Amino acid sequence: MRLSVDTVTSFLHGRGVITPDTPTTATVLAGGVSGATFLVYAGGVRYVVKQPLPFLAVADEWPARQERAGVEAAALGWLADLTPGHLPRLLDYDPSEFVLTMTAAPPGWAEWRSVLLGGRVDVAAGATLGRVLGTWHASSAGAPERLATYGDLTMFLELRGDPYHRTVAARRPDLAEPVLACLDELLTRQSCLVHGDFSPKNVLVGAAVGAADASGTPAADLWVLDFEVAHAGNPVFDVAFLLHHLVMKAVHLSTTGSAGARCAAELLACADAFRAEYAAAGGLAVDEAAVVRHTGALLLARVHGKSPAAYLSADGAAEVSALGAHAVTGELGSVAELFPHAPGPPADQPDVGRTVSR
Ligand SMILES: Nc1ncnc2c1ncn2[C@@H]1O[C@H](COP(=O)(O)OP(=O)(O)O)[C@@H](O)[C@H]1O
Ligand SMILES: [Mg+2]
């Protein structure tokens, strides 16, 4: 049964999540070929209902795709115990229809991606994300038996390895070796629970960011969503995944807006805060050279892979590609060098921000 905005309320009645006499309204939050997400108001409570669907374009090769809902349900349960304030709470999972019901973020919360693309960079959000991710990686690494249930990498290969690394390798044979070396590292080190889509589009932020928590660490009102690609994997992937998004935002804002240098500096500060809090929380991906190489592979993927970043201009894409090439081959030694538009770059940095190879 494919849920629609007309059937989602009766589905929740059937599952016992809400009683039939509760007044409800339902709206579509996101819908497409990969899945559908609904927001349901019932009795003053807001629920999110999510049902992934088979990827129609590759349905023949992907018959079990909806089972990623079960992965998401399991990961939500595990990680909520570790960082309860930073992800939705799973209320119900229907394994026969692959439907998750979870708590909804408060009204007014926004996708962090849109906030960043609007040129508003909150360093505290980066710090909070680092703490959350570091906690997940550290804790899951200490639970090998539970981690083993996420050991199947088929989904990760189909959603990341093939469309990203292997496609870049085919389209940029000059860079195939370092890019495939990254993929090999991702497939052969299964040391912790990796989110797999740790991207600003899967982060919701509240208005009241920047407050301090009890430990004095800056905290942000922030949830991480979308655990469908969770797997036992290499922690460097999540760290590089977030960083490559911050780098692309910096390039984009620098090539399209007048406040580019300020935004790039803030995005670099955000990346630094993310990595510092990640390490402080016990996160495992702390080898900066590896982080930079993997970030480079992902930057290349967003230009030459199967899911190019839609918001990049031609110049922006060329610059991201050049940065990615420098990074994946080991020419860049630090995360700071991935942000050439931020003021005060190291003197010996390759001039990737201005000399664009096409
Ligand atoms: N618990 C939630 N509260 C509020 N909004 C949500 C929630 N879950 C998902 N959304 C919204 O729906 C969108 C799609 O959900 P997501 O879990 O990311 O699925 P998809 O796999 O389709 O990307 C999110 O980007 C977010 O805007
Ligand atoms: Mg998503």
Automatic annotation (TrEMBL):
<dbReference type="InterPro" id="IPR002575">
    <property type="entry name" value="Aminoglycoside_PTrfase"/>
</dbReference>
<dbReference type="GO" id="GO:0046522">
    <property type="term" value="F:S-methyl-5-thioribose kinase activity"/>
</dbReference>
<keyword id="KW-0418">Kinase</keyword>
<dbReference type="Pfam" id="PF01636">
    <property type="entry name" value="APH"/>
</dbReference>
<dbReference type="InterPro" id="IPR011009">
    <property type="entry name" value="Kinase-like_dom_sf"/>
</dbReference>
<keyword id="KW-0067">ATP-binding</keyword>
<comment type="similarity">
    <text>Belongs to the methylthioribose kinase family.</text>
</comment>
<dbReference type="GO" id="GO:0005524">
    <property type="term" value="F:ATP binding"/>
</dbReference>
<keyword id="KW-0547">Nucleotide-binding</keyword>
<keyword id="KW-0808">Transferase</keyword>
<protein>
    <submittedName>
        <fullName>5-methylthioribose kinase</fullName>
        <ecNumber>2.7.1.100</ecNumber>
    </submittedName>
</protein>
<feature type="domain" description="Aminoglycoside phosphotransferase">
    <location>
        <begin position="26"/>
        <end position="251"/>
    </location>
</feature>
